[in-house]
Specification:
The chain has eight helices and ten strands.
Length: 223
């Protein structure tokens, strides 16, 4: 099972830190927010833009973070999947997310950039290959698609699906593949009724092929 990777070199704030000094630490870090830890447990996040705490720091220079009641901070468990990490970043516009173990024990943090990199690794997007997108019925027989890929000596690196925006009966399938002849594979898929909506290796020979142009024209007439 894929698990998230987190960093231990991200600065943290302690409940004993003075608020004014803590804001300076956040500012110098360049992250815009940092985790606040008390007895090894995550208790909050201090945001550089928190005007209420900024005023408190100005009025009471000796006040510490321990006197602040923080809202429950967004955090992700260390055994979460990288895709859960991406979902959390979409919900929380933060540059980083704290990572916790049992009983909210603080372990480290993940930067937004690191999360994107982990998803690229998950779907082998850093590996050499092509992307092909197909529009298919929702009730797709995956075994038939795999058979056609094998016939064209294609190695599947990753597969993802998304619903078609204007149809409850159709979906898009994105394939990340290694294949010796992307042109031949596309022709095979279309011969078996698959609609190829994108091929990242569609070069001049593919774009200028008269048979494909004729096929696109026939599809247009059927609309």
């Amino acid at each position: 099972m894929s698990q998230i990777k987190y960093r231990k070199d991200i600065p943290t704030l302690k409940s004993t830190d003075k608020i004014a000094e803590a804001f300076e630490t956040v500012r110098v870090s360049g992250f815009g927010a940092l985790p606040v830890v008390k007895h090894h447990k995550l208790v909050g996040m201090l945001h550089e833009s928190d005007e209420v705490l900024l005023k408190a720091a100005e009025q009471h220079p000796s006040k510490t973070l321990g006197a602040v009641e923080f809202a429950e901070p967004p955090a992700i468990r260390c055994d979460a999947h990288p895709l859960d990490l991406v979902k959390m970043f979409r919900k929380n516009p933060l540059p980083l997310l704290p990572v916790v173990g049992n009983n909210t024990t603080y372990l480290g943090a993940v930067l937004r950039h690191d999360a994107e990199q982990q998803v690229m690794e998950l779907f082998s997007l850093s590996s050499e290959g092509i992307l092909i997108e197909l529009e298919t019925p929702m009730q797709l027989r995956l075994s038939e698609l795999v058979r056609l890929l094998e016939q064209n000596e294609a190695q599947m690196l990753a597969l993802a699906t998304r619903p078609a925006p204007n149809s409850i009966e159709a979906q898009f399938i994105v394939l990340h593949l290694r294949v010796p002849d992307a042109y031949r594979l596309q022709r095979t898929l279309e011969r078996y009724g698959y609609t190829v909506t994108y091929n990242s290796q569609a070069g001049e020979s593919l774009l200028n092929d008269s048979a494909l142009k004729a096929q696109e024209f026939l599809r247009y007439l059927e609309l």
